[in-house]
Each structure stands twice: as C-alpha cells, then as structure tokens.
Amino acid sequence: MKQKLLNYKSYQGTVEADLDEGHLYGEVQFINDLISYDGDTLPELKAAFIDAVDDYLKDCAKLNKEPNKTLSGTFNVRIGGNSHKALAVKSLETGKSINELVKKAVDELLANRAHETHIHYTFERTIHAPFEAAPSGFLVQPAPTSSTKKH
User: Which of 18, 47, 48, 87 is within CB 3.0–4.6 Å of 37 for a Cys-Cys bond?
Assistant: First the structure.
C-alpha cells in the first residue's frame, strides 16, 4: 500500500490512524533517533510534525550533535538469478559496472522517466498550388497534369 508522507526541511514523517480512538500519529523516518508526533486532525498532525522536526534540530544544535540520518547509500537488492545474469551480460556489453546500471535505473525511476515514452512524428504535406499560396513549412510541387499519351 502506498504511504502518504509529511515533508518538512528534508525530513519525512508517516501519517497513521488509530481507528479505535479516532486519533492520528506518526514518526519521523530515516533517522536513528525516535521522534513521534500526534494530533486529532490532519492540520494538528502536520503542525505537530513540524514542531517535532524543529525541536529535534534545536536539540541536536544544543548537544552539538549532527542530525542523524541512517541512509548510507548502500543497499542489497535481490533480483533473482536470471535477472542477475542478464544484468551481468548487459554490464559486459556496455562496459559499465552493474552498480552503474542499477544506479542509472534507480535515478530514472526517481525522476519519473522509467516509464516515459517519447514518440516523435514527422509529417510531410504536399500541396499543389502556386508558391505564394503555400503555408510556411509545406512542400510545394507542381500540380499534376491530366494529359495522358496513347501509344
């Protein structure tokens, strides 16, 4: 299921609901520290998230601590043997490392280009008219003649 996230100052937070209590809550993601927030309405939850991030950053500054982000840029991916072999072959064919190929695919996905298709059409339209009557960009050819020769 897709997760809607709150965003503020490059931090992301979850939006969760306690259906029994009719209450909203969430946690700031992608940091080692635990920061949670809650509210009874979505505007209250958003305000609590913003306050939680601001408080976290102030606390880090007071403690002379770098705000803690856990993502190192390295992760393992399990794609199956057939895909791994095909990727290794593509690596040899292109002269690029598997890492380079995977990074490019991820970058394209994140830039929403992975499923983007470009179709380019070229139209040529021929009109038969005097040169002055042809609109810009049209190919003008002499009008065909209707005379036929019999042998």
Answer: 48
Mutual angle of helices 81-94 and 98-110, in 10-degree steps: 100
pLDDT in tens, 46-97: 999 999 999 999 999 999 998 887 778 888 889 999 999 999 999 999 999 9
**Cα-only R_g, the chain:** 31
The DSSP output letter for 103 is: H
Residue 80 structure tokens: 């199956």
Which tens digit of pLDDT belongs to each residue from 101-126? 999 998 898 887 655 565 666 666 65
- What is the greatest pairwise CA distance in the chain? 104
Q: What does the alpha-carbon distance between residue 9 and residue 64 come to, in Å, rounded to a whole number?
A: 19
| Residues whose CB is less than 8 angstroms from the CB of residue 49 and which lie 6 or more positions away in sequence, other chains included | 6, 8, 13, 26, 28, 37
Where are the chain's structural domains?
A: 5-62, 73-116
Contact 24, 44 (CB under 8 A): yes
Other beta carbons less than 10 A from residue 53's beta carbon: 23
Q: Please report, as a single letter, which amino acid is at residue 25.
A: Y
Any idea what the Cα angle at residue 106 is, between residues 100 and 112, rounded to 5°?
Answer: 135
